[in-house]
């Protein structure tokens, strides 16, 4: 039809029920319907004016924003408040249960700490008990085994041998932990600490022999002095009687426990599986032994006595002194 709007550009509109019944679909009907719908509706309740004025006010206010209906928000807030109100009794019921579980948790932590302290004290006692049994060579025996060496060269030989020994212990424990077994790990750490302590105590005693600083006294007194030297990582000062006559009291055992605890923490990587712990243990034990020997030697050099100026010392009869010590211990116990 010429001059008519194409069908694809005609605006869509929703038919009213009366139009659907009458079947009016022409352009005239549509224009009439749109005109009727856009016409302003006069207000039946005039407010300070004529009905026309009220209608004009209403038509002018059609561009103003319509306030949102906050009924949905109020419903959501009500539901949240109801959920919180329902959760308060459950929370009140859970607070006493939580409070009642706190003493049990504290008790578990306390028992765990007591168990660790007991294990550390037992390991310290084992190190103290094994210390007198470590054989020590005197200066005459060392000079016979390594003839023609100066004190520093002889000390280097002793440090190298001890470092190889502790490295072997670390590699052995690491190899044993190739397949990790958690219940066996504390025993493996204890075995490593005991073996390394015995090797290093022997090294400390023989370094004192090389530098002419043998502590006076019997086997028990010398062992106490060497244990203190191992715990404090310094040489024994034979000019101070307090360092020689100190019994294994609280201070000495506390220092030993601290030293053993440091070693245990440093030796934890030795328990890595698949032979990694063996390599790590060998390297770390060698490094720690050399570091300890360097501290001891640095302290002993300041008080070193030349071999020519040394008084004649009695040879160390370790077997006889150990038998006497065991006999005295049995008499005390019996």
TrEMBL record:
It comes from the Bacteria. Residues 1-74 are annotated as: Disordered. Residues 7-16 have a biased composition (Basic residues). Residues 29-48 have a biased composition (Low complexity). This is EcsC family protein.
């Amino acid at each position: 039809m010429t001059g008519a709007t194409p069908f694809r550009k005609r605006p869509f509109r929703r038919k009213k029920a009366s139009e659907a019944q009458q079947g009016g679909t022409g352009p005239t009907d549509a224009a009439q319907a749109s005109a009727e719908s856009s016409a302003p509706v006069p207000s039946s309740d005039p407010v300070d004016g004529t009905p026309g004025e009220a209608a004009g006010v209403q038509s002018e206010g059609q561009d103003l924003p319509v306030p949102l209906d906050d009924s949905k928000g109020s419903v959501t807030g009500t539901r949240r408040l109801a959920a919180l109100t329902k959760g308060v009794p459950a929370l009140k019921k859970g607070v006493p249960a939580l409070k009642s579980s706190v003493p049990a948790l504290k008790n578990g932590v306390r028992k765990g700490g007591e168990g660790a302290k007991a294990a550390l004290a037992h390991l310290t006692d084992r190190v103290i008990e094994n210390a007198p049994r470590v054989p020590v060579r005197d200066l005459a025996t060392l000079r016979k085994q390594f003839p023609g060496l100066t004190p520093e060269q002889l000390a280097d030989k002793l440090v190298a041998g001890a470092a190889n020994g502790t490295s072997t212990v670390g590699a052995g424990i690491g190899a044993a932990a190739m397949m990790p077994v958690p219940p066996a790990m504390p025993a493996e750490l204890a075995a490593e600490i005991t073996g390394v302590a015995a090797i290093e105590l022997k090294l400390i005693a023989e370094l004192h022999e090389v530098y002419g600083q043998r502590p006076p006294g019997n086997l028990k007194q010398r062992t106490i002095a060497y244990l203190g030297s191992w715990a404090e990582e310094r040489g024994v000062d034979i000019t101070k009687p307090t360092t020689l006559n100190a019994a294994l009291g609280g201070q000495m055992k506390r220092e030993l426990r601290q030293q053993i605890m440091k070693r245990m923490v440093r030796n934890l990587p030795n328990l890595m599986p698949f032979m990694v712990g063996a390599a790590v243990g060998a390297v770390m034990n060698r490094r720690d032994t050399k570091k300890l020997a360097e501290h001891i030697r640095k302290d002993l050099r300041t008080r070193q006595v030349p071999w020519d100026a040394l008084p004649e010392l009695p040879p160390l009869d370790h077997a006889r002194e150990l038998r006497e010590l065991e006999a005295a211990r049995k008499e005390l116990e019996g």
